[in-house]
Amino acid sequence: MESKRQQKFSRVLQKELAEVFQRDVSHLFNGAYVSITQVRVSPDLGVAKIYLSLLLANNQQEVLQVIRTNTKAIRHALAQRIKNQVRVIPELIFYLDDSAEYAAHMDKIISGLDIPPPSEEDDTEDESTR
User: Fold this and answer.
1) Could you tell me which Pfam families the record lists for this protein (predicted)?
2) Residue 19: inside a domain, yes or no?
3) Does residue 85 belong to any structural domain of this protein?
């Protein structure tokens, strides 16, 4: 469980990184929209794991590789924004957040299940137990 300090710091990072992605480095993504779904910070605030959701991206792995290649520039842009709020700019590690895809996959599986309707015998048993 994260401490209050970690939670506060991760919210600051999420907000400021969103601004960096929208304003400072948006030219890197070839029209893809990058959304930050979650930020997890280590207890010493030295490492931040950033989970990204990529919309309108033809190849998500390619966009993620571009982001990872430009981590130094992204970290520098972040540092310019939060240098007066923190002592140390954390190391940034980027991951794809596939929770939306997983939820869509599970929804497809559940909707594809063949669940038979309850029989009349089950209905009469339920009424007699009440």
Assistant:
1) RBFA
2) yes
3) yes
Domain that holds residue 54: 4-98
One-letter-per-residue 3-state SS of the chain: CCCHHHHHHHHHHHHHHHHHHHHHCHHHHCCCEEEEEEEEECCCCCEEEEEEEEECCCCHHHHHHHHHHCHHHHHHHHHHHHCCCCCCCCEEEEEECCHHHHHHHHHHHHHCCCCCCCCHHHHHHHHHCC
Query: Which residue type sits at 66?
Result: V
CATH code assigned at 48: 3.30.300.20
Flag whether the pTM goes above 0.90: no
Mean predicted confidence (pLDDT) in 71-77: 93
